[in-house]
Amino acid sequence: MRITVLIPSAVALCATVAAAETVLPGDVTFADGAIEQPLTDGAGDPDRGKEIMTSRGKGNCIACHQVEALSEAPFHGEVGPPLDYVGEYRSAAELRGIVANAKMTFEGSVMPAFYKTSGFIRPGDAYTGDAAPADLPPILTAQEIEDVIAFLQTLKDG
Amino acid sequence: MNIRTVTAVSIALIGLAPIAWAGGPDDDELVINGDIEIVTETDAPAHLEELDTIYSGWRFRTDETQALQLDDFDNPGMIFVDQAMDSWGTVEGTEGKSCAACHGDDPAESMTGVRAVYPKWNEDAGEVRTLAMQINDCRQNQMGAEPYGYTSADMTAMEALISVQSRGMPVNVAIDGPAADTWEQGKEMYYTRYGQLELSCANCHEQNYGNYIRADHLSQGQINAFPTYRLKQAKLIQQHNRFQGCIRDTRAETFKPGSPEFVALELYVASRGNGLSVEGPSVRN
Fold first, then answer.
1. Is the residue at B18 inside a domain?
2. Who among B19, B21, B252 is closest to A123 (CB)?
3. Is B15 inside any structural domain?
4. Domain count, chain B
């Protein structure tokens, strides 16, 4: 009974994933640090973006950034600038570029690249301390990057 | 106009409220047992051009954590010093010897000043040796005993016992002569941006000490105070454990405790603390 219910939804899920045009990490084009084209056609979900920014295994953005709107999640760091009004003065394309690979905007930045899969020194398998698998995934998926961008765009004055 | 300036201007334009920064090390002074003065702040050694002043990690901890180091009765690390004192006198191995058989009953007489100069070049072996390597060399070649695991409880306790004999003395590791190549290797590692997060030791401990990274108040990552009793782990932590943890946290494949890479890194990191006092066993959160 359960199985018959589950199969159609799994098929539906695969179908949407296959239909979405996803730009792979190696194919991203930057223009002055920004990425014009969304990484996937699925619209970004700001609520999921919020979760990604606070969860340690995902973006963990608040490890380095203070964000008023995320004050219910404890412990915001101060390695990077506060992001409270970043939706005001940064375009979606600029934000996408910064989150995908901040070093394309800020040379030598301490901020990690969240949509990059090669060019690392001794990459690991997440936080295990072991070597990375051959097909190292980016820290965030294309959809997760879009979710984060959607949330960052809500960070405006008033 | 570069992007940094644009950002700064736009932040100024929208009138962002000033943020309360953590503001670096505190001003507390460390005197252990009302007697042993610990230098927790001093001029950076000449080879360390990127910093003016070096600080012990103690200066970045909360008052509560700091207080545990003021008196040996409150320092949970001292229990392990007592345990190691027992091992010091215990005969082990095929040669029927203990540490005391060669170094005397009182480590204060033979071990004062030792911690301060390790890692150190060993001429006979033709290698830079950490204190842990020297302890195991004694066990294997003098006592005919099994080596301790590099970061085992027995090893860290023995290191704590040896550190205590030098508390208050300035760290003074040699970086020139035959140790120079190893030191260079360690220095290169310190500035290498490891892992998927592409972070070097310097990114956190040189560029960002004094800042919070999530709930952690970043120190300069000095090792003058090792071994350190970590309240979170409720045991003594060896410096190679700490290196391993920090590299793992960059989403990198780490090196192994006792590996040539970590020996080199230890020499370099120790040298960044030349002038701070030997402080171990210390207490950290």
1. no
2. B252
3. no
4. 1
Burial classification of residue B46, based on how many CB atoms lie within 10 Å of its CB (0-12 exposed, 13-18 middle, 19 or more buried): exposed
- Whether B204 has a binding-site annotation, put simply, is yes
Q: What is the pLDDT along chain A (158 residues), one digit of tens a residue?
A: 344 444 444 444 444 444 468 999 999 999 999 999 999 998 999 999 999 999 999 999 999 999 999 999 989 999 999 999 999 999 999 999 999 999 999 999 999 999 999 999 999 999 999 999 999 999 999 999 999 999 999 999 86
Residue B44, chain A, CB below 8 Å: the answer is no
Structural domain including B167 reads 30-283
Q: Does A86 contact chain B (CB < 8 Å)?
A: no
CB-CB under 8 Å, B199 with A112? yes
- Evaluate whether ipTM surpasses 0.95: no
Chain A interface mutation, best of B198, B203, B248, highest count of A Cβ atoms under 10 Å: B198
Helical ranges in chain B per DSSP H? 3-13, 63-67, 78-88, 99-103, 107-110, 131-137, 153-164, 180-190, 201-205, 239-248, 260-272
Q: How many Å is the Cα radius of gyration of chain A?
A: 17
Identify whether B5 is part of a domain: no
What CATH number is associated with residue B226? 1.10.760.10
**Is B48 part of any domain?**
yes
